[in-house]
Amino acid sequence: MQAVLGWCNEHRSASFLLVAWAVLLTVSVSIAQDDAQREERQFNSMSSTQHLNAAKEAWNAIGTHHPEAYEYVKHHLDAVHESAEKLAFEESVTADIVAHKIEQEEQAKKQAEDRQTTTKQKYYATIYNVRPSRVSVSEEPQDCEWGTAPLGNKLCHYEKSVTAVKDDAGRNTDVVVFWTKQEGN
């Protein structure tokens, strides 16, 4: 192949390059077909126990995180004779798939909650390393402002307090931002 491409590059002929490309394409298709046939022969020569073991190994290696994993496992399970071991494995796979779908739905719900948060929530979430939806920020009261009725100095102000709630491992789980009224200026 390389000799053909080298010769074509030396002669810089478009027609020779096109022919070389066609030869490479034909060879690669042929190799892919040979590989597919070899895999099919290997699949057909496996015993029922080998299919079950192949399905188990694939499921343990790939798991539920890849959509094609179940199709591969199902392909092997279809070749397995009915047995208690097959049924138990199928139930296990089904339970894993259901658990994975529930986990995906929960993650999608959390992401949707996080998208509906304010800039302040995102700010504190970044500082305290929690999800934005786990941050509660109360609005700063305005009753001590000079422009609030009655007009003038109210001799008070609000101080912000931030409290991080931690789990047993010491990781922040929630953040609460609130305001405390202080008398005097």
Strand order of the largest sheet: 1-3-2
| Number of beta strands | 3
Number of structurally distinct domains:
2
Tell me the span between the first and last alpha carbons. 85 Å
Compute the average pLDDT. Answer: 81
Low-pLDDT stretches: none
Helix count equals 6
Order of helices and strands: HHHHHHEEE
Shape: elongated
Strand composition percent = 5-15%
Would you tell me the structural class of the helices and strands? alpha+beta
Radius of gyration: 33 Å
Structure description:
The chain is of the alpha+beta class. The protein has 2 domains: 109 residues, no CATH class; 66 residues, no CATH class. Helices cover 59% and strands 14% of the residues. It has a 3-stranded mixed sheet, covered by helices on one side. A hairpin with a 5-residue loop joins strand 2 and strand 3. Helix 1 runs antiparallel to helix 2 and helix 3 packs antiparallel against helix 4. The longest helix is centred in the middle third of the chain and has 32 residues. It is elongated, with a radius of gyration of 33 Å. The termini are far apart. The mean pLDDT is 81.
